[in-house]
User: Fold this.
Amino acid sequence: QVQLVESGGGLVQPGGSLRLSCVASGNIDHPLAMAWYRQAPGNQRELVASISVGGPTDYGDSVKGRFTISRDGAKNTVYLQMNSLKPEDTAVYYCNLKQLMEPNVWGQGTQVTVSS
Assistant:
């Protein structure tokens, strides 16, 4: 069974930076992409960034130019470097794995709070 474990969340001041990590474990036979989503209270879950196995990345409009997604295939880990953080970035951040012919897998989430 595939599991995703996120880490790196916390409290940061506006303008600060954080790096989130997501480690995947278990049998991952046909991965397609990994992604970060976020959900703030009262809001729907939204895509923050994704990276496919082949390397192409995609970002939500609100984070373009500030966030960077990357992956280490050897470690089955995906990272989200978040710079120039804003209060509106406050949310629970979830890691997601998309696989061929398998259900999506979600992590448990990590809280990011941007506040002075």
Notes: The first strand starts at residue 3 and ends at 7. The two ends are 40 Å apart (CA to CA). DSSP finds no helices and eleven strands in the chain.
